[in-house]
Fold this sequence. Notes:
The protein is mainly alpha-helical.
Amino acid sequence: MIQNLLTFIENIIITHGAWGIFWAGFLEEILAFVPSTLVIMTSGFFMLGNDPVIFSSFLKLFMKVVIPVSLGLTLGSLVAYYIFYFIGEPAIKIFGKYVGVSLSDIEKIKERTSKGVRDEVLIFLARATPFFPIMLVNVFCGLIKYPLTKFIYISFLGVLVRATIVGFLGWQLGTFYKDISSKFQTVETIFALIIVFGIFYLIYKNRNKGNER
């Protein structure tokens, strides 16, 4: 599945460039099961590839990856925000299993906000931290009816930080991936042969046991 997602994102980026990255980020927030980290890292990977670590490359990363994907993620997050804003907790029972959010998850965030941590800081850090589920923030803000304007600009700033970090990692891992991809393919082939051999061996062993009986 991950390989199919990578291929899908790669095709969007190659065909549409920065606009493709924007739509990939937007769709990620709606589909939910597509990790935002995967979208951002793949975008950095394919957009910059072997580009040297110089100022112009960082500018390219910011303009063609960070800004488009941050806008896409922010606008896409409004879908879940509005659903849970208007429907409330019953929406978790309907959509929770599809977006990976439960009432217990929401309660944990509520506990943190009740301990003196400002909502703005919590939302920003949740958005900025790589691998933290963005959908959880969307659902929470919708449920507590967090002000829309604050939700949009804090979300965008947080995702901006996340996209910069993860996009840079994807860019730097690009060369490494290309160097070892052929080696992994060879290893996968060997591994598959070992599995096939093991299956035939077990069949052969079971048949011998049956004949002995």
